[in-house]
Specification:
Elements: E1 4-6, H1 7-13, E2 18-23, E3 39-42, H2 43-49, H3 51-58, E4 67-71, H4 72-85, H5 87-106, E5 109-113
Antiparallel strand pairs: 1-3, 2-3, 2-5, 4-5
Helix pairs in contact: 3-4, 4-5
């Protein structure tokens, strides 16, 4: 993948400046960071692509540094907005879409864990 990496790849990089896309609803008491099922995007890619800006258009409570839950309808809106913009942002959205669709087969949301 060009924009997102697996947890194994993130761990091997030794870096922590990633936004983690966590399957399901994050719960501080029961969940662990850097889950094996998660995908992550580096802060530089998040900023360069302005993915955070796109998400904020659909999810006004989006928290770059905290937890943000995204439901299926919100994801569809994010996808459509990215498609209208096309370019690299849409490529990144397409890259993570199979993971998102797999998530929604089991969970009603996924959680983005910010820096």
């Amino acid at each position: 993948m060009k924009y997102f990496i697996t947890e194994t790849e993130r761990r091997n990089s030794g870096e922590t400046c990633y936004h983690e896309f966590y399957k399901g609803d994050w719960n501080n008491e029961k969940c662990i960071y850097w889950n094996e099922d998660s995908l992550s995007i580096h802060e530089d890619n998040m900023d360069t692509l302005q993915l955070d800006t796109l998400i904020s258009k659909v999810v006004p409570y989006y928290n770059y540094y905290g937890e943000t839950r995204i439901d299926e309808n919100q994801w569809k809106e994010i996808y459509l907005l990215a498609k209208k913009q096309s370019g690299e942002l849409f490529c990144a959205i397409c890259e993570v879409s199979p993971w998102v669709e797999e998530n929604f087969k089991e969970y009603s949301v996924f959680t983005i864990l910010g820096l």
